[in-house]
Amino acid sequence: MTSLTLTLPDDWHIHLRDGAALSTTVPDVARWAGRAIVMPNLTPPVLSVADALAYRDRILAEVPEGYAFEPLMTLYLTDQTTSATIAEAAASPHVHGIKLYPAGATTNSASGVTALEPLYPIFEAMEMHDVPLLIHGEVTDSHCDIFDREKAFIELALIPLVERFPALRIVFEHITTGDAVQFIENASQNVAATVTAHHLLYNRNHLLVGGVKPHLFCLPVLKRDQHQLALRAAVTSGNSRFFWVPTQHRIPVRTRNPAVVARAVTPRMRPSNSMQKCLMRRVPWIDWKLSPASTDPTFTDCHAIPRPSHSPSKRSLSQRKSLSTGALLCRFEREKKWAGL
Ligand SMILES: [Zn+2]
Protein backbone atom coordinates (compact mmCIF):
# COMPACT_ATOMS: atom_id res chain seq x y z
CA MET A 1 0.00 0.00 0.00
CA THR A 2 1.51 3.34 -0.99
CA SER A 3 -1.35 5.76 -0.39
CA LEU A 4 -4.51 6.21 1.63
CA THR A 5 -7.60 8.03 0.40
CA LEU A 6 -9.97 9.22 3.10
CA THR A 7 -13.54 10.10 2.19
CA LEU A 8 -14.46 13.59 3.33
CA PRO A 9 -15.46 13.24 6.99
CA ASP A 10 -17.61 15.33 9.32
CA ASP A 11 -16.61 16.49 12.79
CA TRP A 12 -19.28 15.85 15.40
CA HIS A 13 -17.80 17.95 18.19
CA ILE A 14 -15.72 21.05 17.58
CA HIS A 15 -14.86 24.24 19.45
CA LEU A 16 -14.23 26.97 16.92
CA ARG A 17 -14.21 29.67 19.61
CA ASP A 18 -14.91 33.21 18.43
CA GLY A 19 -13.39 36.50 17.35
CA ALA A 20 -9.87 36.39 15.94
CA ALA A 21 -9.62 32.63 16.59
CA LEU A 22 -12.17 31.97 13.84
CA SER A 23 -9.71 33.02 11.14
CA THR A 24 -7.57 30.02 12.17
CA THR A 25 -10.05 27.44 13.42
CA VAL A 26 -12.56 27.70 10.57
CA PRO A 27 -10.12 27.32 7.64
CA ASP A 28 -8.45 24.52 9.61
CA VAL A 29 -11.61 22.41 9.82
CA ALA A 30 -13.09 23.51 6.46
CA ARG A 31 -10.09 22.04 4.65
CA TRP A 32 -10.77 18.49 5.84
CA ALA A 33 -14.41 18.29 7.03
CA GLY A 34 -17.71 18.76 5.25
CA ARG A 35 -19.74 19.66 8.32
CA ALA A 36 -19.18 20.07 12.04
CA ILE A 37 -21.33 20.21 15.17
CA VAL A 38 -20.19 23.53 16.65
CA MET A 39 -20.11 23.70 20.44
CA PRO A 40 -21.78 26.77 22.00
CA ASN A 41 -19.55 27.47 25.02
CA LEU A 42 -18.46 30.95 24.01
CA THR A 43 -18.22 33.91 26.36
CA PRO A 44 -21.03 34.89 26.45
CA PRO A 45 -22.59 31.54 25.50
CA VAL A 46 -24.81 30.84 22.49
CA LEU A 47 -28.20 30.94 24.23
CA SER A 48 -30.75 31.60 21.51
CA VAL A 49 -31.37 30.76 17.87
CA ALA A 50 -30.54 34.40 17.05
CA ASP A 51 -27.16 33.98 18.81
CA ALA A 52 -26.52 30.76 16.88
CA LEU A 53 -27.36 32.34 13.54
CA ALA A 54 -25.11 35.33 14.21
CA TYR A 55 -22.28 32.97 15.23
CA ARG A 56 -22.93 30.88 12.11
CA ASP A 57 -22.54 33.98 9.95
CA ARG A 58 -19.22 34.80 11.64
CA ILE A 59 -18.03 31.25 10.95
CA LEU A 60 -19.16 31.23 7.32
CA ALA A 61 -17.32 34.51 6.74
CA GLU A 62 -14.05 32.67 7.49
CA VAL A 63 -14.58 29.63 5.23
CA PRO A 64 -11.86 29.72 2.59
CA GLU A 65 -12.94 30.06 -1.02
CA GLY A 66 -13.62 26.76 -2.75
CA TYR A 67 -14.75 24.89 0.35
CA ALA A 68 -18.37 24.01 1.12
CA PHE A 69 -18.04 23.72 4.89
CA GLU A 70 -21.34 23.72 6.76
CA PRO A 71 -21.39 24.60 10.49
CA LEU A 72 -24.17 22.81 12.39
CA MET A 73 -25.09 24.99 15.33
CA THR A 74 -26.00 24.11 18.92
CA LEU A 75 -27.43 26.08 21.83
CA TYR A 76 -26.10 26.25 25.38
CA LEU A 77 -28.52 24.93 28.00
CA THR A 78 -28.82 27.03 31.15
CA ASP A 79 -31.12 27.06 34.17
CA GLN A 80 -33.06 29.81 32.35
CA THR A 81 -33.60 28.05 29.00
CA THR A 82 -37.30 28.02 28.07
CA SER A 83 -39.51 25.60 26.16
CA ALA A 84 -40.13 28.38 23.63
CA THR A 85 -36.38 28.42 22.85
CA ILE A 86 -36.50 24.67 22.29
CA ALA A 87 -39.43 25.04 19.90
CA GLU A 88 -37.58 27.78 18.04
CA ALA A 89 -34.45 25.63 17.85
CA ALA A 90 -36.48 22.72 16.48
CA ALA A 91 -37.90 24.96 13.76
CA SER A 92 -34.49 26.26 12.68
CA PRO A 93 -32.72 24.37 9.88
CA HIS A 94 -29.38 25.44 11.36
CA VAL A 95 -29.68 24.34 15.00
CA HIS A 96 -29.04 20.65 15.59
CA GLY A 97 -28.82 20.15 19.32
CA ILE A 98 -28.72 21.63 22.81
CA LYS A 99 -25.53 21.23 24.83
CA LEU A 100 -25.68 20.51 28.54
CA TYR A 101 -22.66 21.57 30.57
CA PRO A 102 -22.85 20.93 34.30
CA ALA A 103 -21.88 24.32 35.79
CA GLY A 104 -18.14 24.40 36.38
CA ALA A 105 -17.37 21.12 34.60
CA THR A 106 -15.11 22.47 31.86
CA THR A 107 -14.03 25.50 29.79
CA ASN A 108 -16.65 28.30 29.75
CA SER A 109 -19.20 26.23 31.68
CA ALA A 110 -19.94 28.82 34.35
CA SER A 111 -23.37 29.43 32.82
CA GLY A 112 -24.11 25.70 32.74
CA VAL A 113 -26.89 23.90 34.55
CA THR A 114 -26.81 23.55 38.32
CA ALA A 115 -29.45 20.80 38.62
CA LEU A 116 -31.27 18.55 36.18
CA GLU A 117 -34.66 18.14 37.80
CA PRO A 118 -35.84 21.76 37.39
CA LEU A 119 -35.07 21.35 33.67
CA TYR A 120 -37.38 18.36 33.21
CA PRO A 121 -39.97 20.52 31.34
CA ILE A 122 -37.18 21.50 28.93
CA PHE A 123 -36.19 17.87 28.34
CA GLU A 124 -39.86 17.12 27.78
CA ALA A 125 -39.98 19.84 25.12
CA MET A 126 -36.80 18.47 23.53
CA GLU A 127 -38.29 15.00 23.49
CA MET A 128 -41.49 16.33 21.92
CA HIS A 129 -39.67 18.39 19.26
CA ASP A 130 -37.01 15.71 18.73
CA VAL A 131 -34.10 18.01 19.52
CA PRO A 132 -30.99 16.03 20.54
CA LEU A 133 -29.41 16.68 23.94
CA LEU A 134 -25.60 16.74 23.86
CA ILE A 135 -24.06 16.17 27.27
CA HIS A 136 -20.72 16.86 28.91
CA GLY A 137 -21.12 13.99 31.35
CA GLU A 138 -19.22 14.70 34.54
CA VAL A 139 -20.38 15.57 38.03
CA THR A 140 -18.85 18.72 39.46
CA ASP A 141 -18.93 17.86 43.15
CA SER A 142 -15.52 18.91 44.49
CA HIS A 143 -15.48 15.83 46.73
CA CYS A 144 -15.74 13.49 43.77
CA ASP A 145 -12.35 12.33 42.52
CA ILE A 146 -11.63 13.74 39.07
CA PHE A 147 -11.11 10.23 37.68
CA ASP A 148 -14.56 9.11 38.93
CA ARG A 149 -16.62 12.05 37.73
CA GLU A 150 -17.88 10.47 34.52
CA LYS A 151 -18.87 7.22 36.22
CA ALA A 152 -20.70 9.17 38.93
CA PHE A 153 -22.53 11.23 36.32
CA ILE A 154 -23.78 8.07 34.61
CA GLU A 155 -25.18 6.72 37.86
CA LEU A 156 -26.55 9.95 39.31
CA ALA A 157 -27.75 11.79 36.22
CA LEU A 158 -27.76 9.82 32.99
CA ILE A 159 -29.52 6.64 34.04
CA PRO A 160 -32.43 8.53 35.65
CA LEU A 161 -32.61 10.91 32.65
CA VAL A 162 -32.78 8.09 30.10
CA GLU A 163 -35.41 6.27 32.15
CA ARG A 164 -37.58 9.34 32.44
CA PHE A 165 -37.22 10.51 28.81
CA PRO A 166 -36.88 7.34 26.74
CA ALA A 167 -37.60 9.10 23.44
CA LEU A 168 -35.08 11.90 24.03
CA ARG A 169 -32.08 11.53 21.77
CA ILE A 170 -28.89 11.91 23.75
CA VAL A 171 -25.24 12.15 22.70
CA PHE A 172 -22.88 11.48 25.59
CA GLU A 173 -19.93 13.63 24.50
CA HIS A 174 -16.27 12.58 24.55
CA ILE A 175 -16.64 9.53 26.76
CA THR A 176 -13.51 8.38 28.58
CA THR A 177 -14.38 5.22 30.51
CA GLY A 178 -15.34 1.59 30.12
CA ASP A 179 -18.36 2.47 32.29
CA ALA A 180 -19.57 4.90 29.62
CA VAL A 181 -18.99 2.30 26.89
CA GLN A 182 -21.08 -0.19 28.84
CA PHE A 183 -23.79 2.39 29.44
CA ILE A 184 -24.07 3.13 25.70
CA GLU A 185 -24.05 -0.55 24.77
CA ASN A 186 -26.93 -1.21 27.17
CA ALA A 187 -28.89 1.92 26.26
CA SER A 188 -31.55 2.29 23.58
CA GLN A 189 -30.92 3.36 20.00
CA ASN A 190 -31.65 6.93 21.10
CA VAL A 191 -28.43 7.15 23.08
CA ALA A 192 -25.01 7.48 21.45
CA ALA A 193 -21.53 8.75 22.33
CA THR A 194 -18.61 10.59 20.80
CA VAL A 195 -15.05 9.39 21.39
CA THR A 196 -12.07 11.65 20.80
CA ALA A 197 -8.75 10.74 19.22
CA HIS A 198 -7.13 12.09 22.38
CA HIS A 199 -8.79 9.49 24.60
CA LEU A 200 -8.06 6.70 22.11
CA LEU A 201 -4.38 7.57 21.81
CA TYR A 202 -3.50 8.25 25.43
CA ASN A 203 -4.14 7.14 28.99
CA ARG A 204 -3.25 8.81 32.27
CA ASN A 205 0.24 7.31 32.28
CA HIS A 206 1.04 9.44 29.23
CA LEU A 207 -0.15 12.45 31.19
CA LEU A 208 1.53 11.74 34.52
CA VAL A 209 4.45 9.29 34.37
CA GLY A 210 7.83 11.01 34.41
CA GLY A 211 6.27 14.36 35.27
CA VAL A 212 3.03 16.07 34.33
CA LYS A 213 2.68 16.80 30.62
CA PRO A 214 0.26 19.71 30.56
CA HIS A 215 -0.26 19.53 26.80
CA LEU A 216 -2.01 16.18 27.37
CA PHE A 217 -4.43 17.67 29.89
CA CYS A 218 -7.92 17.90 28.44
CA LEU A 219 -11.29 17.55 30.15
CA PRO A 220 -12.62 14.98 30.76
CA VAL A 221 -9.18 13.96 31.98
CA LEU A 222 -7.42 10.86 30.61
CA LYS A 223 -8.19 7.66 32.51
CA ARG A 224 -6.49 4.29 33.14
CA ASP A 225 -5.32 2.18 30.20
CA GLN A 226 -8.17 -0.29 30.78
CA HIS A 227 -10.59 2.53 29.89
CA GLN A 228 -8.54 3.52 26.84
CA LEU A 229 -8.70 -0.10 25.68
CA ALA A 230 -12.47 -0.21 26.26
CA LEU A 231 -12.85 2.91 24.08
CA ARG A 232 -10.71 1.39 21.35
CA ALA A 233 -12.78 -1.78 21.45
CA ALA A 234 -15.98 0.29 21.24
CA VAL A 235 -14.97 2.29 18.18
CA THR A 236 -13.78 -0.81 16.35
CA SER A 237 -16.79 -2.90 17.35
CA GLY A 238 -19.00 -1.83 14.47
CA ASN A 239 -21.54 -0.27 16.84
CA SER A 240 -22.52 2.91 15.01
CA ARG A 241 -23.61 4.60 18.24
CA PHE A 242 -19.95 5.35 18.96
CA PHE A 243 -18.73 8.27 16.82
CA TRP A 244 -15.13 9.28 16.51
CA VAL A 245 -14.28 12.97 16.77
CA PRO A 246 -10.93 14.72 16.49
CA THR A 247 -9.99 16.76 19.53
CA GLN A 248 -9.94 20.47 18.94
CA HIS A 249 -10.46 21.85 22.41
CA ARG A 250 -8.79 25.11 21.69
CA ILE A 251 -8.72 27.77 24.34
CA PRO A 252 -7.49 31.34 24.18
CA VAL A 253 -3.75 31.74 24.57
CA ARG A 254 -4.40 35.03 26.38
CA THR A 255 -3.60 33.60 29.77
CA ARG A 256 -0.66 33.72 32.10
CA ASN A 257 -0.99 30.12 33.20
CA PRO A 258 1.70 28.18 31.31
CA ALA A 259 -0.20 24.92 31.70
CA VAL A 260 -3.24 26.45 30.07
CA VAL A 261 -1.13 27.88 27.28
CA ALA A 262 0.24 24.43 26.64
CA ARG A 263 -3.28 23.05 26.39
CA ALA A 264 -4.15 25.76 23.91
CA VAL A 265 -1.38 25.08 21.51
CA THR A 266 -1.13 21.33 21.44
CA PRO A 267 -4.38 19.48 20.82
CA ARG A 268 -4.34 20.06 17.06
CA MET A 269 -5.51 16.54 16.44
CA ARG A 270 -6.98 16.78 13.02
CA PRO A 271 -7.57 13.51 11.18
CA SER A 272 -4.59 14.43 9.06
CA ASN A 273 -2.30 13.72 11.99
CA SER A 274 -4.17 11.88 14.75
CA MET A 275 -5.72 9.38 12.39
CA GLN A 276 -2.35 8.73 10.86
CA LYS A 277 -0.90 8.02 14.27
CA CYS A 278 -3.59 5.44 14.87
CA LEU A 279 -3.10 3.95 11.46
CA MET A 280 0.59 3.55 11.95
CA ARG A 281 0.20 1.98 15.36
CA ARG A 282 -2.67 -0.40 14.87
CA VAL A 283 -3.26 -1.78 11.43
CA PRO A 284 -6.76 -3.09 12.31
CA TRP A 285 -7.84 0.52 12.72
CA ILE A 286 -7.52 1.08 9.00
CA ASP A 287 -11.00 -0.21 8.26
CA TRP A 288 -12.42 2.08 10.88
CA LYS A 289 -10.73 5.13 9.39
CA LEU A 290 -11.74 4.21 5.89
CA SER A 291 -15.39 3.88 6.89
CA PRO A 292 -16.05 7.47 7.89
CA ALA A 293 -19.05 8.06 10.01
CA SER A 294 -20.52 10.52 7.53
CA THR A 295 -21.47 7.65 5.25
CA ASP A 296 -23.29 5.78 7.98
CA PRO A 297 -26.99 6.60 8.11
CA THR A 298 -27.37 5.43 11.71
CA PHE A 299 -24.56 7.67 12.81
CA THR A 300 -25.90 10.62 10.89
CA ASP A 301 -29.35 10.05 12.26
CA CYS A 302 -28.15 10.40 15.85
CA HIS A 303 -27.63 14.10 15.34
CA ALA A 304 -30.92 14.45 13.46
CA ILE A 305 -29.32 15.84 10.38
CA PRO A 306 -29.70 14.90 6.73
CA ARG A 307 -27.38 12.56 4.92
CA PRO A 308 -24.23 14.27 3.62
CA SER A 309 -24.68 16.20 0.43
CA HIS A 310 -20.96 16.18 -0.31
CA SER A 311 -20.87 14.00 -3.37
CA PRO A 312 -17.76 13.98 -5.53
CA SER A 313 -19.54 16.46 -7.80
CA LYS A 314 -19.82 19.00 -4.97
CA ARG A 315 -16.29 18.45 -3.81
CA SER A 316 -13.91 17.26 -6.43
CA LEU A 317 -12.01 14.07 -5.76
CA SER A 318 -8.83 16.09 -5.74
CA GLN A 319 -10.05 17.75 -2.54
CA ARG A 320 -10.07 14.42 -0.75
CA LYS A 321 -7.08 13.68 1.37
CA SER A 322 -4.52 11.46 -0.23
CA LEU A 323 -1.24 10.92 1.57
CA SER A 324 1.73 8.79 0.70
CA THR A 325 2.96 6.25 3.24
CA GLY A 326 6.29 8.07 3.29
CA ALA A 327 4.60 11.32 4.29
CA LEU A 328 2.60 9.49 6.96
CA LEU A 329 5.70 7.94 8.45
CA CYS A 330 7.54 11.21 8.40
CA ARG A 331 4.75 13.07 10.17
CA PHE A 332 4.26 10.22 12.62
CA GLU A 333 7.90 10.34 13.63
CA ARG A 334 7.69 14.10 14.08
CA GLU A 335 4.62 13.81 16.28
CA LYS A 336 6.10 11.04 18.36
CA LYS A 337 9.00 13.33 19.11
CA TRP A 338 6.63 16.15 19.96
CA ALA A 339 4.52 14.01 22.25
CA GLY A 340 7.61 12.64 23.98
CA LEU A 341 6.71 9.04 23.03
ZN1 LIG B 1 -15.80 19.81 23.88
Provide a concise account of the structure shown.
The protein has helices spanning 22-30, 49-60, 83-91, 120-129, 149-164, 178-186, 197-201, 204-208, 225-235, 258-265, 271-281, 285-289, 297-302, 325-339, and strands spanning 3-6, 11-14, 35-38, 70-76, 95-100, 133-136, 170-173, 191-196, 242-245, 321-324. With 341 residues, it is of the alpha/beta class. The radius of gyration is 19 Å and the shape is globular.
Q: What descriptors fit this protein?
A:
TIM Barrel; 10 strands; alpha/beta; binds zinc ion
Strand order, sheet with most strands? 2-3-4-5-6-7-8-9
Spell out the CATH superfamily. Metal-dependent hydrolases
Which CATH architecture?
A: Alpha-Beta Barrel
Which topology does CATH recognise? TIM Barrel
Ligand inventory reads:
zinc ion
Amino- and carboxy-terminal Cα gap: 26 Å
Q: What structural class should be given to the helix and strand makeup?
A: alpha/beta
The overall strand count is: 10
Residue stretches low in confidence (pLDDT < 50, at least 5 long) are: 250-341
Helix/strand order:
EEHEHEHEHEHEHEHHHEHHHHEH
What is the radius of gyration computed over CA atoms, rounded to a whole number of angstroms?
A: 19 Å
Mean pLDDT: 78
Tally of individual domains: 1
Largest sheet: 8 strands, parallel
Write down the overall geometry. Answer: globular
The count of helical stretches stands at 14
DSSP strand (E) fraction? 5-15%
Explain how this protein is built.
The protein is α/β, with parallel strands linked by helices. The chain has a single domain, classed as TIM Barrel, CATH 3.20.20.140. Helices cover 38% and strands 14% of the residues. It contains 14 helices and ten strands. Strands 2-3-4-5-6-7-8-9 form an eight-stranded parallel beta sheet. Strands 1-10 form a two-stranded antiparallel ribbon. Helix 5 links the parallel strand 6 and strand 7. Helix 3 packs parallel to helix 4. Bound molecules: zinc ion. Zinc ion (ZN) binds next to loops.
